Each structure stands twice: as structure tokens, then as C-alpha cells.
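Entry 14. Structure prediction run on the chain below.
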Amino acid sequence: MNGAQLGYIILAAVTLISAYGVVVAPKLMHSALWLGAAFVGMAGLFLLLDADFLAAAQILIYVGAITTMILFGIMLSDIRDLRAPGVEPWWKRLASLVLSPRRGLLPLLSALGFTSALWAVAWRAPWPDQAPPASENVTASIGELLFTQYALPFEVASVLLLVALVGAVVLSMREGAKER
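Output returned:
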């Protein structure tokens, strides 16, 4: 096992643990932070695969924009909706976490199955000693494709994101908010 394989396994484990944290975190703010950690882990995997542009886009778009938008959504929400139910002893929280189908056993078994599949792929995959050299400037070709051949889907996606942002703001407003 070389350094790249070890790095892949560590980053994959960090990403999966963070993704599991998104599902099982008792507070919404913690879930958002776990989501940011999962996005950073994915960016690390892209870096490991010599996909520098995808890693930078992952950090800028997902960690910078999406996670920030989720945190803004949480901050715009009513605090009464975000509070977790009362504090229980740790053994009760652990028991309810393990027994819950949505937050307990099913996501854990899914994560373990996916980790096993990744482990099998990583163990049997013929890892090259050197990454193949890039034939051309990847970033320039992606930019050219986005603004020529895929300009319409790119603009439609940006309008959809704007509509989602406005919709999130409208949904977060309460009917009684004007009275405060």
C-alpha cells in the first residue's frame, strides 16, 4: 500500500464519517457543519485524483456557497423550530439513535456497506504509479464548453439556484413575522 492508497482510504473514511454525521447529528447546525466537512473530504479525494479544478470548484461552490446558504437558512429560521428536544442521558440518546430507522441502523449499515465496497475497489484496483499527463488545459476546456456548448443548461441551473434561494427565504418567513 502506497501513500496515495492510504490517503484515499483516510479521505474516504473522513468523508463517510462526515456524511454519517450529517444524518445523525441532533442539531441542524451540527448537520450543516458535518456537511461542510464531507464536502472538504470530497475535495481532498478530487485532489488525490489530480482533478485540481474539480477540487477548487468543490471548495468554492459546495463548501463556500452551499454550506453558507444552508447556514443562512438556519439563521433565518425560527429558533424554536431548531432546538433539539430536551437533554436526555447519553445511554438513552445512544439507544434511540441505534434503534431509529432513519438516523440509526439503516444509515450505519449503508455507510458500512459503502465503505466495504470502496475498500474492495481500492484494494483490487490497479493503481498507476504516475498519473497520466493531461493532454491539454482542462480548466480552459471546461470553461469553453460551459460558455459555448452548454451555455443554456448553465444559465438554467443558475436561474434554478436563484429561485431556490428566493423560495427558501419566502418559506422561512412566518406569517406573524410582520407583527413583531
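The chain has eight helices and no strands.
Filed with the rest of this week's runs.
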